[in-house]
Amino acid sequence: MPRPALRRPARSLRSAVGSTLLVAASVLLLTGCGPTGADPAPSASDPAQSGSPAASDPAASPEPTETVEPPTPFEIACDALVTPDQLYAFNPNVGAAPDYTPQASTVVTLTTDAAGTACGYLNQTSGDLIEVAVATPSETALETYMNDAAASSTAVPTYGTPPEVTGFFKHSGSHGQVQVFTGGYWVVVDSTEFFEPGDAQRLVDDVLANLPAS
Predict the structure, then answer these.
(1) What are phi and psi of 117, to 5 degrees?
(2) What is the rounded distance in angstroms from the CA atom of residue 213 to the CA atom of residue 211?
(3) What is the DSSP string of 120-147?
(4) Gap between the Cα atoms of 202 and 90, Å rounded
(5) Are 204 and 211 in contact (CB under 8 A)?
(6) In angstroms, rounded to a whole number, what is the distance separating the alpha carbons of residues 5 and 39?
(7) What is the pLDDT of residues 74-120, one digit of tens each?
(8) Residues contacting 70, CB < 8 A, separation 6+
(9) Other C-beta atoms lying within 10 Å of the C-beta of residue 175
């Protein structure tokens, strides 16, 4: 007598459970790869997100530039700065110095930095050189030169009455030097012939009288 066919329900149940677990795992895997929420807010310190230039960007904070006012060049003929008659009255032995170039450091500064004019007059007997120079610096530079003169020299009221005329004198080494500030002018008179302020008084008066009105 033939045997009846055997049922195998357990195997089918395991297959169904396995399929269910596989599907659930796939769903979880796909869920983990997807977006989890809204993007985080951009950081305020991130220049790329905030749209503002980085602090190190030179265009963000340009450096201010300082404007330097140039001097107004001052030119005058030497026989107009001190006339021959005035030179003779000051000292008959003094005349124009041939091939003159500025010697005193203050006179060099006046002619180069302040664009002024310098003239040389020579004592034909002693060979001493007298330098007379005039410039019209900018207002700021004029104040700087006057402060420098005040710090290194002695005020001389006989050259003029401040603030219209402010004069100084110093004797250093073998040289005496006068500096006068008046009406926008910077005047320097330098020579080994000047030992005291009064030695240059007449020459200073003549130069100030010959300057064009400012």
Answers:
(1) -120, 135
(2) 6
(3) EEEETTT--EEEEEEEB--HHHHHHHHH
(4) 7
(5) no
(6) 62
(7) 999 999 999 999 999 999 999 999 899 999 999 999 999 999 999 99
(8) 115, 138
(9) 18
Separation CA 177–CA 1 (nearest Å)? 150
CA nearest neighbour of 107 among 97, 19, 213: 97
CA distance 167 to 74: 20
Place of tokens 């110095």: 97
pLDDT at 5 (0 to 100):
47
**Angle 50-52-53 (CA atoms, 0-180°, nearest 5)?**
130
SS3 for 17-66 is: HHHHHHHHHHHHHHHHHCCCCCCCCCCCCCHHHHCCCCCCCHHHCCCCCC
State the Cα angle at 194 between 192 and 199, rounded to 5°. 155
pTM: 0.69
CB 129 within 8 A of CB 97: yes
| Residue 24 confidence (pLDDT) above 50 | no
Task: Locate 66 and state its tokens.
Answer: 């300082």
